[in-house]
Amino acid sequence: MRYAYLLINLLTVFFPVVLSFDKRVAFYKSWKFIWPGMAITGLFFLFWDVLFTIHGVWSFNPAYIIGIKFFGLPLEEMLFFLTVPFACIFIYACLNHYLKWLMPYRLTSIISSMVILLSIMMLIFYHDRLYTTVTFGLLPVLVLLIQYVFKADWLNRYYLAYFVALLPFYIVNGILTSVPIVLYNNAENIGKRVGTIPFEDHFYLMALLLMNIGFFEYFKQRKLSR
Predict the structure, then answer these.
(1) Smallest Cα–Cα separation from 161: which of 205, 125, 196?
(2) Model-level pTM greater than 0.90?
(3) Which of 20, 173, 192, 215 is 20 to 30 A from residue 131's alpha carbon, by CA?
């Protein structure tokens, strides 16, 4: 049982790694564009993860982790910020290759505006909850920058990938929160859950993937422009 979280990480990344060598998508050729952004984003989120753990926003069930920790975080939690983004960027790349339909930019703008509006409302009503405040404080800043400052032409493909990624998210996070392997302090979130998954987790994932895919596109375009 103590290998449960580690096994979840390995299963999350197993199929994306194996299928990366499929000749049609050839995702392995894009690996070099993933690592820099994943390192930057991972360090940023791990910083908050350490603070959240210290302040009791969440904790980890010792029965399901191997016990190796860095700065109070289980090794498995640190791997989470590698395996989940890698798997989701793989989904993003596959959709880009196989799906010819593109979300209209007007719809993209509407979604971005709704995310920003929701974030503002959450900050107004739940500013005293640490997990809620950090999640909905970071997310609208990222959306504003990418949608309206950088005017990224990939944001419509990102939103589509995010919605598709929710399916494996519900499986992986559902296991983590139902066993439970990760335990949440409801005093630091709004206390609403989808099944066993805290409401904030959906938008924490959105911010995590937005940063990862943003850096992925940045490093890829910088290479292509040389």
Answers:
(1) 205
(2) yes
(3) 215
